[in-house]
Amino acid sequence: MNQINRKSKISSFFELLSSQCEYIMTFALGLLMIVQRFLSGVYKPVMDDWFLYGDLYKGISNRLANFAIPNEKFAIRPLAGVFDCFVNAPLFNHLWIVELFLTFSLLFGSFLIIKALRRNNFASGGFFLCLVCLFPVGLEATYWIAAATRVAYSLLFIGCAILSLDYCYKSDKLKFLVMFAVFGMLSVCFYEPAIVVYIILTLFIVWNNYKNKKDLLPLAIMAAHIAIIGIYYILNSGSGEIESRGGFLETDIWEHTALVTDFTKNIFTDFTNSIFKNGYNKGILIVFSGHKFIKILLIAILSIIFGVFSAVCIKKRNFSWKILVLGIVMFFGGLSLNYILGSDRIPLRLVFFAYLGIGIVIDELIVLLPLSFSRILCAVLLTVSAFSFTVTGIGEVSDYQKTSDIDVALTSQLINLDTKENITNTDKNVYVFSGQHYYDETKCVSWLDHIRGVSGNYADFTGCMRHITGAANTNNVMPFTYGDIHKLKPFIDIEGVCNFYNIEYDRTIVPVKLVADGDNYIIKRNDDSIVGTLTKVDDVFTPFGNLM
């Protein structure tokens, strides 16, 4: 009798675990995200963080007009501007708190999307969650705060919107339609690719639930959302970022398509492979340093829990072409804006939303297998994936932190060398030679905005300098990059206006001077050793020789 009761209790326990599998796997995933993002240290500002939060927004938190006046500072992605100004900038010295907000927003948003889809015959969700929340190539979109503010919060509101819409159909209560209208409007105010995802998921929920014309009302609400944000973008079409990156394609469509496809393919293949090799090697060294047994055991146990309970969550049902089509449409939808916008600049964050589609497709294809086999396969693959993604992500995060440390070290040197305070004098010009977009010391994989250093970008460099000095208004610190030297031309011969510095191979910064040599200029250190030469070609100065 006792043995029967014991078996009954054990059976009840496992039934309870099974009924809570969605929450258990999400909890384990959340802990893995925390480990991935914080094991190597707290968040440190990089790239746009410096000028967005350390400089640009910190002094205008009370200027609400910036959100309303066309083409002002917040005239694109309005809610991203609100979070930048009123959340991120005030917490600039404690950005780890912002990183926690973003981490949990990404986790909860992804969970809510899966919850809504599972209420509409989606069988699984483990691969979706693993790719969206842990995939290390996606960290530019979900870890770097300047980008993650646009991505993580948009996913959170998308999840709230479509789950509310599903409750509206299944309960027929007006309050859920109102919630859909509110959250849907919030969803489209962060990031353009997120708008596409919101449209696709809304269409799917409507397609899967409508029975009569009255049930098509959410489509009218969604159309209103798109119209409102569309009008907002039109009114602000003169803002710098929309002009440079947001204009529609005007060149040869076939040439543009081939170029974008090639760049995207490189991200999914060669670049992803390089990230894993680089990140995993660095991550495993961090995991094996100090208390390695505890760290390995923690990551392994959490990965196993996530993998096993993701497998338990798989529903017994037939394969659904409707879900597979959703995944395929989501994949191409996540990439679609890259093909219709004029810019062929494809940073990693612009392919992130395609991972949602890839995850849905993989989760659905698993259903083609017998249930018991699919659960075993899912448990093994997701355990291994979660472990490797977490460790590789730890290596990626450490590259962000090292880059930030080098940013501060270089900028601090420059400030200390500037005894006459020319950098903080708006009447002076400061130029830095031998700056790099990517620091050799980090050995990170280079691709557009992927872990870029301040020394190769004037806005980042200036933002970092303004934060460290506390000066609200200064002259720009202008790193020399190819083609930028023409900005020097009007001032190059005026004594006392320009100050020049060079970043040496060992990352020390030294003052330099420009000595006229015919139409050219020789860059010399104070000991008269030569750094390099600026050669005048077609009225523009370009480097000749090694600027290091």
Please describe what this structure looks like.
The protein has 548 residues and is an alpha/beta fold. The protein contains 19 helices and seven strands. It has helices at 2-19, 21-38, 48-56, 65-68, 78-88, 95-118, 126-134, 139-142, 145-171, 174-187, 192-209, 217-235, 240-245, 253-287, 292-312, 321-340, 354-366, 371-417, 458-469, and strands at 429-433, 477-479, 498-503, 509-517, 520-525, 530-537, 540-544. Helix 6 (95-118) runs parallel beside helix 9 (145-171). The protein starts with a helix and ends with a strand. The mean pLDDT is 86.
Keywords:
alpha/beta; 548 residues; 60% helix; 7 strands; 8% strand
- Number of discrete helical segments: 19
Largest sheet: 7 strands, mixed
- Mean pLDDT, all residues: 86
Oligomer: single chain
Order of helices and strands: HHHHHHHHHHHHHHHHHHEHEEEEEE
What Rg is obtained from the alpha carbons, in whole angstroms? 26 Å
Gap between N and C termini: 83 Å
Question: What are the low-pLDDT stretches, counting only 5+ consecutive residues below 50?
Answer: none
SSE layout:
Layout lengths: L1 H18 L1 H18 L9 H9 L8 H4 L9 H11 L6 H24 L7 H9 L4 H4 L2 H27 L2 H14 L4 H18 L7 H19 L4 H6 L7 H35 L4 H21 L8 H20 L13 H13 L4 H47 L11 E5 L24 H12 L7 E3 L18 E6 L5 E9 L2 E6 L4 E8 L2 E5 L4
Helix pairs in contact: 2-6, 2-7, 2-15, 2-18, 3-19, 5-9, 6-7, 6-9, 7-17, 7-18, 9-10, 9-11, 10-12, 11-12, 11-16, 14-18, 15-18, 16-17, 18-19
